[in-house]
Amino acid sequence: MKGKDSYYLTEGIILKRQQYRETSLLCRCATKDLGIIGIIASGVNKDKSRLTGFFEPFSHLQLELHRTPRAELYNLRGVSLIRNYLRPDLDCTKEEKQDASRRLSSVTEVQTVNEPTEISLAKKPGSAREKNRIDYQDTLLLNAAAELLLQSEFAIGESQDFFTLLCGYLNYYPSSQYRPFYVFLRFVFRFLDLLGISLNASCFRCTDSSFIYFYPQADGFICEKCRDGIFPENLIRLGKETVEVLGNIYHLAAVKDREITRQTVEEIRNVIIIHLANHYNKRFHLHSLNDYQNKEE
Predict the structure, then answer these.
(1) CATH superfamily of domain region 6-118
(2) Considering the chain, what percentage of its residues have pLDDT values greater than 90?
(3) pLDDT tier at 37 (50, 70, 90 boundaries)?
(4) What are the residue boundaries of the structural domains of the chain, listed by start?
(5) Which of 78, 220, 276, 296 could form a disulfide with 204 if both were Cys (CB 3.0 to 4.6 A apart)?
(6) For domain 136-291, is the CATH number 1.10.150?
């Protein structure tokens, strides 16, 4: 029996995009209702298309989607730009967002078209560099968050929780009083909590917060007095700064003035990817952090 085509109205944030044929894009998107999905945006790369700027990474969009039975990818049928977190100058006005919401909610039947329709008109990218763009180092941390989402697995029923967490991170990030890496790290800990694989910043044997090692085989931290009987080569020694940052991740005021060194970034990155690999039984990566360095170093 032939299944019916499905139509969806949802919100999504572009995590990754790549060229698809000559005039289209294949986007990986975190959505409010459907989880992480692939979307084919046909025709948006045409020379005269008004939609190209909508599909920059970390664009928050209202999406009108279509999918045929058994298909893995969704086809874009309508789009409205709510916000671009890397380019705040492109944001819609409040009235434009309300108008887009009304028009999306009034759709009862979607007509198949060759190119996506522009549901509402938002500001378009300019050629000059705007002062309020997020700089390269900050973008690396946003990309690292996207990497985590794209590699992880969670049920569609949980997608709204992860979408809300991502929106909260992207909204809070530019205005936070804390160093960007601390804000990213707090996002990671909350992300792990949602996955059900929390990373507890204390010794897994005695719960002491003065741990100095990460023990991959036990997937936890361990202090000096509890490490007896464990071969040194099976332990990853952590720097004093790393321990202090991890121990205060929910009390950032205690470390807000501490600078982040390259060594600390590498040690924390290794802990995160080992922790994820232990639970998912596959390799993880955070390539975006390879080039990250504190701006004040």
Answers:
(1) Nucleic acid-binding proteins (2.40.50.140)
(2) 63
(3) very high
(4) 6-118, 136-291
(5) 220
(6) no
List the one residue out of 74, 112, 119 whose CA is nearest residue 96.
Answer: 119
DSSP string, the chain: -PPPPEEEEEEEEEEEEEEETTTEEEEEEEETTTEEEEEEETTTTSTT-S-GGGGSTTEEEEEEEEE-TT-SSEEEEEEEEEEESS-GGGPPPHHHHHHHHHHHHT--SPPP-SS-EESS--PPPPSSPPTTS--HHHHHHHHHHHHHHHH----GGGHHHHHHHHHHHHHHGGG-SS-HHHHHHHHHHHHHHHHT----SSBTTT--S---EEETTTTEEE-GGG-TTS-GGG-EE--HHHHHHHHTTT-GGGTTTPPPPHHHHHHHHHHHHHHHHHHHTS----GGGGG---TT-
Please give the pLDDT value at position 209: 86
Separation of alpha carbons 104 and 80, rounded Å: 9
Comparing CA positions, the residue from 179, 178, 181 lying closest to residue 288 is 181
Closest to 89 (Cα-Cα) out of 133, 138, 135, 136: 133
Q: What is the pTM of this model?
A: 0.83
Exposed e or buried b per residue across 58-73, where buried means at least 16 C-beta atoms within 10 angstroms of its C-beta: bbbbbbbbbbeeeeee
Largest CA distance in the chain: 68
In 3D, which of 279, 145, 131 has the Cα closest to residue 216?
279
